[in-house]
Design a protein that fits this description.
alpha+beta; 8-stranded antiparallel β-sheet
Length: about 200
């Protein structure tokens, strides 16, 4: 009589283990399916980019890599913040899409006046990346690479990353900040004395 509860306990334990293994296998298969659906529209590594240009607020900003440093072609004396540019490139080069669509009329998707127009140069050649209109239903942008009529649906992180003026990617010298603070303090002291 004591064997019956023991056998039932073993059976329940085996069922639990079997259920756990089945659930784990199901989750692994789902993750694999999601990975297979994910596409990388931009097949460029951040480290391979030797030049970069983008248009923001009607201004074209052109940068060239010199060793680890980025140089602005329009103003070579400007001190470009390498970390900011690397972060922008990292965001763009890791863009993924889970859906693509082939189209004939690009103007229907906002490519007459793209949200972002970015050009990357590597030793192998040049790649143009454009962000078209925003799809409100899917909460994603249409992205086009080079002259392809295949559009990818992507989140807007890279689009946002390139909304920077030349001043936004320039290093702000610390001494200027300190001088400005000192001047402001002196002005405040002078105004206080005059008020007295």
């Amino acid at each position: 009589m004591k064997k019956a509860p023991l056998i039932i306990g073993v059976i329940v334990l085996l069922l639990c283990i079997g259920g756990y293994v089945a659930l784990h296998q199901y989750q692994a298969n789902e993750e694999k399916r999601e990975e297979e659906k994910t596409m990388s529209p931009i097949s460029v590594a951040k480290e391979d980019v030797t030049a970069l240009s983008y248009v923001y607020e009607g201004e074209t900003i052109s940068l060239e890599k010199d060793g680890d440093a980025w140089i602005c072609k329009e103003d070579t004396k400007r001190d470009i913040n390498e970390e900011t540019v690397d972060s922008m490139l990292d965001t763009l080069c890791t863009v993924t899409a889970d859906e693509s669509v082939d189209v004939d009329n690009l103007s229907d998707y906002g490519f007459d006046e793209p949200e972002a127009d970015i050009t990357l140069t590597t030793k192998e050649g040049t790649i143009t990346v454009k962000y078209g209109m925003y799809n409100d239903i899917l909460s994603k942008y249409y992205l086009r690479v080079d002259d392809s009529k295949t559009l990818y649906l992507v989140v807007g992180d890279a689009n946002t990353a390139f909304k920077k003026t030349i001043e936004d990617i320039t290093v702000v010298p610390e001494s200027n900040t300190e001088e400005t603070n000192t001047e402001e303090n002196q002005t405040e002291v002078t105004q206080t004395k005059q008020a007295e």
